[in-house]
Amino acid sequence: MRRLLVPFILSLGLMPALSTAETGELDTVAAVKREAVREFWLDGVVEAINQTTLSAQTRGQVKEILFDVDDYVEKGQVVVQLKDTEQKAGLDQARADLKEAAARLQESQDNFKRTKDLFGRKLASQSQLDKATAALKSAKARREAADARLAQANEQFEYTRIKAPYSGIVTHRHVEVGEIASPGQKLMSGISLDQLRVTVELPQSLIPVIRKQGKARVLLSTGEAIEGQGLTIFPFADQSSNTFKVRVDLPQGIADLFPGMFVKTAFVTGVKKELVVPAGAVVYRSEVTAVYVVGKQGRVHFRHIRAGHPVAAEMLSVIAGLSEGERVATDPVAAAKLLKQQLAEGRDG
């Protein structure tokens, strides 16, 4: 791991630019120090929050596999179909048992109603009424048991159609058509790209300050910085490396970011003063990074600098080569032309 300090500017204001009249030819802006966030940068690995392996919950032969690796699946779609002959027969039997129980319950209700009416007219004995009451209770219990068996049979039948729990991409297929799947056997694995996070291994010395600050951002390959939505710090260290695992949750809808990718992750550790200039004022020539410094009487100087990482509002930190208060040209092309003109005038003089 390599420690890098990269500022994230909290205050974006710069000293006002001088007009063309004041410098002779160029608009300039002063290099100023602003309060910036001190960050610790590490490599992190992108992973999916939702990653699931679907398993069989009933026994059956694999009849059809409707999706394969790298296919996109909508939530609720069937991904694997098991042979359902046995389960369907059990479902039909449960439905028949429910119809029989319902008929017996209706019969018991009618008999109880008649017996109660006769008992009220003194034409039936108490024992007959008790017998009709017991038969009605038994019929109700049989109806409830039949309902439960039907629900169980229907669930077993649904188990033959393995569905996606959320929308995502298939990553592994563990079975082939014709195999006998047993309860617990892996069938298909997949991930969702809607919710991603970054996992980073942090040295134990940083954990107290990271817990206190609780902020991190992720730098994408495009240069865009994404603010983390929250940190999860594991409460124990890895015994082999003495590092703590930290998860940085990302917002939804980030394009071109996939599980397994490496990304730079910055954790806030404090604040510092940092010298900044507009990123547009910096020029890059081969291995040289420089700015055009405008001095007294509008004299232009080509100054090598050591630049830091890009920061907020199209600004760039300067590590070395420039002092606070020095003015740099905001238009490098115009500055280069003026410098060339000044050099030519100096030779002529």
UniProtKB/TrEMBL annotation:
Coiled coil: 88-156
Domain of life: Bacteria
Every CusB-like beta-barrel domain range: 198-267
Cellular component, GO annotation: efflux pump complex
Domain Multidrug resistance protein MdtA-like barrel-sandwich hybrid, first and last residues per copy: 51-186
Domain Multidrug resistance protein MdtA-like alpha-helical hairpin: 91-160
One protein family per Pfam: Beta-barrel_RND_2
GO MF entry, a single one: efflux transmembrane transporter activity
The keyword Signal belongs to this UniProt entry's keyword annotation: yes
Signal peptide: 1-21
Keywords (A to Z) from UniProt: Coiled coil, Signal
PANTHER family associated with the record: MULTIDRUG RESISTANCE PROTEIN MDTA, RESISTANCE-NODULATION-CELL DIVISION (RND) EFFLUX MEMBRANE FUSION PROTEIN-RELATED
Protein family (similarity comment): Belongs to the membrane fusion protein (MFP) (TC 8.A.1) family.
Name of the protein this chain belongs to: Efflux RND transporter periplasmic adaptor subunit
Organism of this sequence: Candidatus Thiodiazotropha taylori
